[in-house]
Design a protein that fits this description.
There is one protein chain. The protein has 5 helices and 5 strands. It is α/β, with parallel strands linked by helices. It has a single domain, classed as 3-Layer(aba) Sandwich (Rossmann fold), CATH 3.40.50.2300. It has a 5-stranded parallel β-sheet with strand order 2-1-3-4-5, with helices on both faces. It is globular, with a radius of gyration of 13 Å. About 35% of the residues are buried. The mean pLDDT is about 95.
């Protein structure tokens, strides 16, 4: 079974770190985006199983992008990523419809655990 993931972050380094974690975990990265606008477009084009999305980005933030993605697909599975100290934004993201959140700096086991939890796989 192949699980397809899209990674959304404005920092190339973060995308690279996340790609490395998810691919070593046996998942496939099928797309990337650098802001919320791109995230919505990539979601529409690729229809991934999971989106790993930063909250704070230029052009369109992650919460606004999350709302737009959920309009396209109410069953979209989005895991939000944020820095420590952004509890208010994390709560807002979960209330908006994010399935989980992971905190930077990423711990590989936490990222993979979150993906498996959201997909309901062991």
């Amino acid at each position: 079974m192949s699980i397809n993931i899209v990674i959304v972050d404005d920092l190339a380094f973060i995308k690279m770190v996340l790609r490395d974690i998810v691919e070593k975990g046996g998942f496939r990265v099928i797309g990337e985006a650098s802001n919320g606008e791109e995230a919505v477009q990539v979601y529409q084009d690729k229809r991934p199983d999971i989106v790993l999305m930063d909250i704070t980005m230029p052009k369109m933030d992650g919460i606004t992008a999350l709302k737009k993605i959920l309009k396209i697909d109410p069953h979209a599975k989005v895991i939000m990523c944020s820095a420590l100290g952004q509890q208010r934004l994390i709560i807002q993201a979960i209330q908006t419809g994010a399935k989980d959140f992971i905190v930077k700096p990423f711990k590989p086991e936490r990222v993979l655990k979150s993906i498996k939890k959201v997909l309901d796989i062991a």
